[in-house]
Amino acid sequence: MFGIPVLGVAHDVLLTLADALAPLLGTGSVAGAVVVFTACVRLVMVPLGYAQARAEVARARLAPQVERLRQRYARDPRRLARELGALHRRSGISMFAGVLPALAGLPFLFLTYRLFAGDRDLLGHTLVGAPLGLHPVAGLGGPHTPVLLALIALIAGVARVGYRRAAAVPNTPAPLRWMPFATVPTAAFAPLAVGLYLLTSTAWTTAERPLLRRLATARADRVVPGH
Which of 29, 187, 190, 222 is geometrically suited to a Cys-Cys bond with 194, CB 3.0 to 4.6 A? Predict the structure, then answer.
């Protein structure tokens, strides 16, 4: 997916960030660079997050109409699906708008995986003593088990918060509610640096979503006064 030039640029960017962070983080400077890199990626994707927030607000406001349709066509699932699709189209929202930020972040996730799956300049760096190229599943039972378990536990905790917030939004499709938990098995079978990327990205999303929803709600109130 990524050619040598892209990997080379990403490698240089990470090491440049690590050099800048070295006075503060020492041997953890590359791990810090992964966090900063992830934050920059998420900053670029804020417009997609805002689009997702607008869709969530719109779905919440459609909830009464959706419930009426479900009661009316409870015995006709095909008609219900058609009516729900038509309702969302008329409202100008997608039932799966929340997938966009996750899809947009996949190339950067794969890039991080490629870098720490075979780049010798990066594999020797550590996070609290644990090599950034170490896979948690392979490292369990070894000297780095506490670090690996702590990272997986943090990712699972953030995923749980993300699930609860998504479930609190009326009319959210089940795949979008459960999507945050996909980060847990991914982190378990990927290099430690990928887990650090996932933790940073999901924590950013968890913190960002309420802010963007408030902005989207304020905008919707201006467009449709009285709601």
Answer: 190
Residue 26: left (phi > 0), alpha (psi -120 to 50), or beta? left
Is there a contact between 110 and 6 (Cβ–Cβ < 8 Å)?
A: no
pLDDT in tens, 63-101: 888 889 888 988 888 988 888 888 878 877 765 566 777
The Cα 23–Cα 18 span in angstroms is 9
pTM: 0.83
Q: What is the pLDDT of residues 198-214, one digit of tens each?
A: 999 999 999 998 899 89
Range of the domain at 34: 4-62+98-223
Total domains in the chain come to 1
- Angle (nearest 5°) at CA 184 between 182 and 186: 75
